[in-house]
Specification:
- The protein has 302 residues and is mainly α.
- It has one domain.
- It contains 15 helices and no strands.
- Helix 5 crosses helix 9, helix 6 packs across helix 10 and helix 10 packs antiparallel against helix 13.
- It starts with a helix and ends with a helix.
- Keywords: Cell inner membrane, Cell membrane, Membrane, Transmembrane, Transmembrane helix, Transport.
- It is a multi-pass membrane protein.
- Belongs to the ABC-2 integral membrane protein family.
- InterPro entries: ABC2_TM, ABC2_TM_bact-type.
């Protein structure tokens, strides 16, 4: 076999074998190729298609909840214990030792009000990223909107958020704190939280499935982001000159808004919420676009 023929086989083995068979009078049938992809040519999500797969979305949410607490003696009680124990640690370290300001509220209640939305965000992002990677076997077998996997993981964490919110209501009764009219902004606040969480999840999940280092760095990334939000300290500690820049982080408006409506630590931060809403919409919109631009190769990369 001459060198030219060897190079041809190495560069394009399928074509070389077909050519060799043809020269011997053998007719070769091409191997069937199954393409698992979105038929939509649009880079933006086909929302009608997502709605068609709503039953699968509901199934994925239920499965996520069941798997999370399978063989757990406490079950959903972890949604209570995790923020409670974290609150105790923060109260001792930041409230008693560091003596950080809590805008006039009891530091335990102040920190818990910040932990409830933050733990939803951090856990939902982590679950969404890991869920897309672990769903590789499904993606390689059948087509469905890939976005269902990270978004269903986000939605499943709402159970924890609701349970922790009930505990927070109990703490407010214990401390004799009543909510105010600012709590009427809660639907807006929750919408910003959901958009921000989904946007960050889609960005990081897309990166993680291409670069596995992101998965290993995810815990560190989320931990760093916590200190960029007013979880253990009030936003009032940030200098006035940087307040609006600080509010670009949507979770700033979410956390401060929940504290303002539930604890009355400050007037409702409408400016934070407005800036955070714009940022959250931008995060979600660009996250969806980037996710859709890469989802065609997810099955190969996962």
């Amino acid at each position: 076999m001459n060198k030219l023929k060897i190079l041809n086989i190495m560069s394009n083995p399928a074509e070389a074998v077909a050519s060799e068979a043809a020269s011997d009078g053998i007719a070769m049938q091409p191997y069937p190729v199954t393409r698992i992809r979105n038929t939509s040519g649009s880079a933006w999500t086909n929302w009608v298609e997502l709605y068609r797969y709503r039953d699968l979305f509901q199934y994925l949410v239920r499965r996520e909840i069941k798997v999370r607490y399978a063989q757990s003696a406490i079950g959903v009680g972890w949604a209570v214990l995790q923020p409670l124990f974290t609150m105790l640690v923060f109260t001792v370290i930041f409230g008693r030792l560091a003596k950080l300001s809590s805008d006039g509220a009891a530091y335990a209640l102040f920190s818990f009000a910040g932990l409830v939305p933050w733990m939803f965000f951090s856990n939902a992002v982590t679950d969404g990223v890991n869920g897309l990677i672990s769903g590789a076997s499904m993606m390689s077998k059948v087509y469905f909107p890939r976005m269902l996997m990270p978004l269903s993981a986000n939605a499943a964490r709402m159970i924890d958020f609701v349970v922790a919110s009930v505990v927070m209501s109990g703490l407010m009764l214990w401390y004799g704190v009543a909510p105010n009219w600012g709590l009427l902004a809660l639907p807006w606040i929750l919408a910003v939280m959901a958009l921000c969480t989904s946007g960050v999840t889609l960005w990081l999940a897309t990166f993680a499935i291409q670069f596995r280092d992101v998965k290993h760095a995810l815990g560190f990334i989320v931990q760093i982001l916590m200190y960029a939000a007013p979880v253990v300290y009030p936003a009032s500690l940030v200098p006035d000159a940087y307040q609006r820049f600080y509010a670009i982080n949507p979770m700033v408006g979410v956390i401060e808004g929940i504290r303002a409506g539930c604890l009355g630590t400050r007037a409702m931060p409408w400016d934070f919420l407005l800036i955070g809403t714009i940022s959250a919409i931008a995060l979600f919109g660009t996250g969806v676009t980037y996710f859709n631009s890469k989802q065609r190769v997810f099955a190969d990369l996962a």
